[in-house]
Amino acid sequence: MTGPEQFPMNNQQQEKATLLERLIFNNRPVVIFICLLVSAFLFYQATLIRPSTSFEKMIPLKHPFIQKMIEHRNDLANLGNTVRISVEAVDGDIFSKEYMETLRQIHDEVFYIPGVDRSGLKSLWSPSVRWTEVTEEGFAGGEVIPQTYNGSADTLEDLRNNVLKSGQVGRLVSNDFKSSIVDVPLLESYPDPEDQGKLLKLDYQQFSHQLEEKIRDKFQVQNPNVKVHIVGFAKKVGDLIDGLIMVVAFFGIAFMITLVLLYWFTRCIRSTIAVLITTLVAVIWQLGLMHAVGFGLDPYSMLVPFLIFAIGISHGVQKINGIALQSSDADNALTAARRTFRQLFLPGMIAILADAVGFITLLIIDIGVIRELAIGASIGVAVIVFTNLILLPVAISYVGISKRAITRSKKDATREHPFWRLLAKFASPKVAPVSIVLALLAFGGGFWYSQNLKIGDLDQGAPELRPDSRYNKDNQFIIDNYSTSSDVLVVMVKTKAEGCSTYAAMAPIDELMWKMQNTPGVQSAVSLVTVSKQMIKGMNEGNLKWESLSRNPDVLNNSIARADGLYNNDCSLAPVLIYLNDHKAETLDRAVKAVKEFAQENNKEGLEFLLAAGNAGIEAATNEVIKSSELTILILVYICVAVMCMITFRSFAATLCIVLPLVLTSVLGNALMAFMGIGVKVATLPVVALGVGIGVDYGIYIYSRLESFLRAGMPLQEAYYQTLKSTGKAVLFTGLCLAIGVATWIFSAIKFQADMGLMLTFMLLWNMFGALWLLPALARFLIKPEKLAGKVGGSLFAH
Amino acid sequence: MSEPVMAGTGPVIQMGAKRPSAFHRGVLRTAALSLIGVLSATAIVLPVHAAQSADAVYSIQSTKAQHGLMLDVAQAGARLVAVGDRGHILYSDDQGQSWTQAKVPTRQLLTAVYFVDASHGWAVGHDAQILVSSDAGATWTKQYEDLKREAPLLDVWFKDVSSGYAVGAYGALLATTDGGKHWEDVSDRIDNEDQYHFNGIAAVKDAGLFIVGEQGSMFRSADWGQTWERVDGPYEGSLFGVVGTAQASTLLAYGLRGNLYRSSDFGSTWEKVELKGARGSLEFGLSGATLLKDGSLVLVGNGGSVLRSSDDGRSFRVYNRPDRISLAGVAAKDGDELILVGQGGVRVAAATGAERSQQ
What we know:
The complex is a heterodimer of chains A (799) and B (359).
Chain A: H1 3-6, H2 9-13, H3 19-25, H4 28-48, H5 64-71, E1 82-89, H6 97-111, E2 130-135, E3 138-143, H7 153-166, E4 179-185, E5 189-191, E6 199-201, H8 204-222, E7 226-232, H9 233-266, H10 269-292, H11 304-327, H12 333-360, H13 368-399, H14 403-414, H15 418-423, H16 431-449, H17 470-481, E8 487-495, H18 503-517, E9 522-526, H19 528-539, H20 553-559, E10 573-580, H21 585-602, E11 607-613, H22 614-649, H23 652-676, H24 685-711, H25 716-743, H26 751-782, H27 785-788
Antiparallel strand pairs in A: 1-4, 1-7, 2-3, 5-6, 8-10, 8-11, 9-10
Chain B: H1 11-17, H2 25-36, E1 45-46, E2 70-76, E3 79-84, E4 89-92, E5 100-101, E6 110-115, E7 121-125, E8 129-133, E9 141-144, E10 153-158, E11 164-168, E12 172-176, E13 183-185, E14 198-204, E15 208-213, E16 218-221, E17 229-231, E18 239-244, E19 251-255, E20 260-263, E21 271-272, E22 276-277, E23 280-281, E24 286-291, E25 297-301, E26 305-309, E27 317-320, E28 327-332, E29 338-342, E30 345-349
Antiparallel strand pairs in B: 1-13, 2-3, 3-4, 4-5, 6-7, 7-8, 8-9, 10-11, 11-12, 12-13, 14-15, 15-16, 16-17, 18-19, 19-20, 20-21, 22-23, 24-25, 25-26, 26-27, 28-29, 29-30
C-alpha cells in the first residue's frame, strides 16, 4: 500500500485548499509572528501566576448547608478556620519552667503572625482560660496560670491543680499532660498593618511557612525538649501548595521521557523539537491565559498543564506521522505540511472538541476548584488548536523532516507488519465473539465490584495528603492525645433575638444533643446547654443533682454568661458542635439524617435547626454535591461524546463502536477505585470526564481510518490491518504519551493527585486498549462493510 | 398535660420558686427579697392526678442511658434500680451485669430513688416530679409535678407503702399518707426562714427522721415527720446527705470538701470524721451513702472518692478512683462488691470502689 491508496482523497483534493488553509499557508511569516507576539505576552502573564487557593473555592457554595453557613458565618466564632499548635514536652510533662516559658513565647509569637484573629487566640497563657471551684465561701476562680507564677515548684504545682480544675484536660491540655495546645483562629482577610483601611487576603502558603519558620523550626531549636505539631485547614493548604512545587519537577521528568519517546518514534530531531516546542508554547499560553482571566494555580488546576502537554504531544505526533507519510510523495516540506493540515485538521478539531466537551461538563459541579479546572483545561485544549494544529504544520513546513525519517516511514508503509497482522485478528469473525463475551464478563464483574465504591474521603486525617505525611502524623498525635475529634458537624440553632438562652430553646437543643449522641458514629456533642448545665451545677456547689437546665430564666441567662463562642452577640444563634468518629460518607449521612429528622419534628416559629457548618458539615455538603453530580456528569459526558460521534460519522453503529469500549473502561475504573479504597470525591470526579473526553480520541482516529478503508471496499479484517499499519503506531504512542504525562502524578506528595494520576493512567491506557481490541470486534457485529463500500458522503471524513 | 389541677397554682409553692441558691444570691437578691414576704404558713392539700396523661412524654430508650449521668441507686428486693438524667431509670436483676431501661413518663433529671419494699418505690427529680412504681421499678407513673416551682426535689424517703416524704430545693417538704395519691406541701412544719435547700432525708434507728441541707442546716423529727426541730450543726458549708448507721440514734452527715460528721445522739452532738486521701486530707465533696447489711458504711463523692467504714462510721478507708469521676450514689451487691452511679453511668466496682480488674 502506498500513500495515495491510504489517503484516497489526496489526489482529487490536492488543489482544493480550504480558505483556512490558504489563509494560513499563504501568510506563514505572519502566523509565526503573531504566535511569537502572543507567546511573549502570555509568557509574561504565566510568570505572574502563583499557587493559591482559598477556603471558599474548595466548597460547594450553592449547597444549602454552605449557604446557611455563610449566612451565619459572622455569628459562628470562626468554627471553620482554626489552626491548632500542639506543643509537646518530649521528656517529662508540661509542668516545667522551661516548657511553660517556651509555650509563652510561642503564644506571643503567634499573636503577631498576620492573619491571626488575636482576640480568639487561646492557650494556657490566655487570661480567658480559667479554673473554677466551689468552696464554703462561694465560687472561687482565676486564671489557670496564677498571678504569682514564677516558674517555682510551688507555682507549677498550683498550675497543675488549676489545670485539673479548669476542665481543659483533653481540650487545651492533652490527656497525658505531655502537651498543650495553642488555639489559633484565623481571619480570611485582615487589615493591612501598613494601611488599616485596606484588607489583605490571608495567604495560606505564606502563613504556613511562617508557622514553620517562626514556630516549629525556631522553637524546636531553641528548646530541644519540645516538639511542635500543627494542624488546621490553613496548614493543610500550605502543605498542599508546597506539594505543588514538587509537581513542577514531575513536569520535567514527563518532558524528558516524552522527548526520548518522541525521538524514538520519529527518528528525527527536528520534528521532535518542533513538537516539543509547540506543545510547550501551548502550556505557556494556557498558564498565561489562566492568569489573565484571574485564576491561580491550585492543587487541582496544577494538573491541567500536564494534560495539555500530553494532549498537545499526542496531536503533534499525529501531525508528524501524517507529514512523514505525505513527505514520501510530496515535493517539499511545505506541500507535505499543507496536505497533512488539510487531512488532519478536521479529525484533530473533533478530537479536541471532544476533550473540551468532556471538560466543560465538569462545570456542573458546584465547587470552585473543579470549575477552574474545567475552564483551565478547556482553555488549554482550545490553545492546542492554534499551537499544534496550525503552528506546528507551519513550523514543519520551514524545518522539514529528516530524510531518514521519511525513508523509514516509506518503508513502514510498504512492508508487512506481523504485529499489526496479529492485532487485526480482533476483527476476525472467530475472535470477535470471544472478545465480546470477555468484555461482557468484565463489564458484569466490574459493575458488581464497583457496588463497593464509596462516596467521600475514606482515610483518617487529611485525605489530601499521604497518611505518612507530617501533617497527618501531627493530626494523629492530636487525635491520640486529646479528646476532641477533628471531624465536627455544626448545627446552627436560630432563635429570635435574646431567644437562645430561653428554656424553650435550650430544652430542644438538649434533646438534639442526646439524639445525636445516640447516633452511631457520634462521639459527643457540645453547645451552650453543656456549659449551662455545668454552670448550674457549679452555682449549686457542684452538686450533681443540679446538672440540668433550669426553668428559671434568670438562672438560665446567668448560666451561659461564660459560654463564649457558643452563642452570638444578640443570642439569636447557637451552634451545636457534634464531634464525629470520622468523616466517612456513611457516618456523615447518618448524622445529617438524624439532624434533619429532628429539625423536621422541632422546627417552629422562632426556633430553627439549620445544617450545617464545621468541617464535617462542609464534607457532608460536598458529598451530597458529588453524589448528585456523579451520575449527571457520567451521563452528560457520554451524551456529548455520542453526539460528537454521531455528527462526525453520521452512523449509530459507528457511535456504538466508539462509545461502548469507553463504557467498559468507566465501569472497570470504578471497580479499580473500589479495590484501591479510593472514594468518589472532589479529586476523582473529574477523572471520569477527563478519561472519557480524552479516551474518545483513539476511537475517533481509529474509526475514521477504518471507515475510509471500508469505503475503499476492503473486508473488515483487512481494512483494520491497514488502519493499524498507518495509524496504530501513532495511537499506541499517543496512549503512552498521555499515560506518562499523568502517571508521574502517582508520586505526588498530594494524595489526591496520586489518586487522580493512577486513575487517569488506568483510564487512558485502558481506553487505548479498548479502542484497539473492542472497536473492531464491535464493528464485526455492527458495521456492514458491503453497505459502506464505494459509498461517498455520510461521514464528515468522506470528502 | 391533663393533670386535673396544675400543682403549682398554690401560693405556698410559688413563694418557694424564686429563692436563690446560696451561691448566686447576689444575682437574684432583688427577686428573692420581693418574694420573702409572701411566705405563708398555710398549707394546702394538692389534688393528685392518678391517671397518666395520654400524651405524656416518655424517656427515650437508649443504649447510652447506662453511660449517662445517674444519680441514685436503690435495692428493690434482689433487683437494683438506678435513676438519672433524661428520665432514665435502669434496673438490673443480675447484680449490675446487665441493665434494662424502664418505661418512664418524663425526660427530666431524676435525683433520688427509694424502695420501701421489694416492689414499691418512688423517684423524685426536677420539675418537682414524683414518680411511683409498684412493680419493682419496671414501670413508672407520675404522681406529682410542679413546673412553677422551677426547682427540683432532691431526696425521698418512705416509712411504709403509704406514708413518706420528699424534700427539695428552697426548703420544700412534701408529705403523703396514702402512698402518694395525694401529696401535701408541709414545708411550714420546718423552721427554715432562709429557705435553705433540703439536700437529704434519712431515718435514724430508734430515733426518727433527719434532714440536712444547704449551709450546714440540720433538722430532726422524733415523731417521724410531724414536728421538726432545728439542730445547730457543726459545719457552715453545705451538707449533701445523711445516713443512719446500724447503731441506734447514730448517723453520719456529709457534704462539701470532704466534710463528714458523726453523731451518736440523734444530732445533739457531733464529731468530725477525719478523712485522709492519698495527698493529704480529702477535699472532694461527698454526695451519696449506703448502709450495708453487715453494718459497714460506704460513702461516695466527687473525684472518684469511695469511703468505707467497718466500725460504724468512726473511721473510713479512702479510695480515689483513678478515673476521678464524680460519683453520686452507691448500693451494695451480693458479696463485697459495690454498684457505683454518677458521671458516666452505672459501674460495678470492687469492695474498695476500684475497678474490679484492678483490685
